[in-house]
Specification:
Blueprint (H helix, E strand, L loop, with lengths): L3 H38 L34 E4 L8 E2 L8 E2 L6 E11 L4 E10 L10 E11 L2 E4 L5 E4 L2 E5 L18 E2 L1 H6 L6
Length: 206
């Protein structure tokens, strides 16, 4: 009987020790669970960052520059003496000896044309005017400084079947004035209108 007591005591000690370890393990596990629960109870901080990305959408056609073709600009000519079947001059051609009238009583010399486009032509130089005294055939030519403006272009189909624009009106300004011989009833006509060219005008040449 005494021999069994130590064995019983040892067994009891082992049981108690085992129970203590299990209790300690459970406590630890419980602590861990408690800490995890505490962590889940803490507020969560959420941070979002917005990063701008380059647009990959192609520009619409309206955003791109558009090249608009320039309409054809017609060339306008001056018909010497108002005759469309005679000599036709453009800017550089009407620089010297360019008659304004069919009778040769007035002509342009040493002209430069800073402006010559389909709407208007403006040039400066010298105009030689016949005073027709006692007649235009024996009169005196007076050179005077002049600014000439051509306007009112019309389309004409010439006898050579050429479609061409011509000026029908010429106006004049004389910066230094006119000599006495060209004053009063003997003053030059201003403006000069070429009614015959206007009468020849047509909408188109077919």
């Amino acid at each position: 009987m005494r021999a069994l007591l130590p064995a019983v005591a040892l067994a009891a000690t082992l049981i108690v020790a085992t129970a203590g370890c299990q209790s300690s393990s459970s406590a630890t596990a419980g602590g861990t669970t408690t800490a995890s629960a505490g962590s889940s109870a803490s507020p969560s901080l959420s941070i979002s960052a917005s990063v701008s990305q380059p647009s990959l959408v192609p520009a619409s056609p309206s955003d791109s520059p558009v090249s608009v073709p320039t309409a054809h600009q017609p060339t306008v000519y001056f018909a010497e003496g108002g005759d469309t079947n005679g000599t036709s001059m453009h800017a550089s051609g009407c620089s010297a000896g360019c008659p304004l009238s069919g009778d040769g009583t007035t002509s342009l010399w040493n002209m430069t044309w800073p402006t010559w486009n389909p709407t208007v032509a403006i040039g400066t130089g010298t105009e030689k005017i016949d005073d027709c005294n006692p007649s235009c055939a024996t009169g005196k030519l007076y050179p005077v400084k002049v600014t000439v403006t051509f306007r009112d272009a019309v389309l004409v189909c010439t006898s050579q079947h050429v479609a061409r624009y011509y000026w029908t009106r010429a106006s004049f300004a004389w910066p230094a004035g006119l000599p006495t011989a060209l004053s009063g009833d003997n003053a030059p006509v201003n403006p000069v209108t070429y009614a015959n060219i206007t009468a020849e005008s047509t909408p188109s040449c077919g």
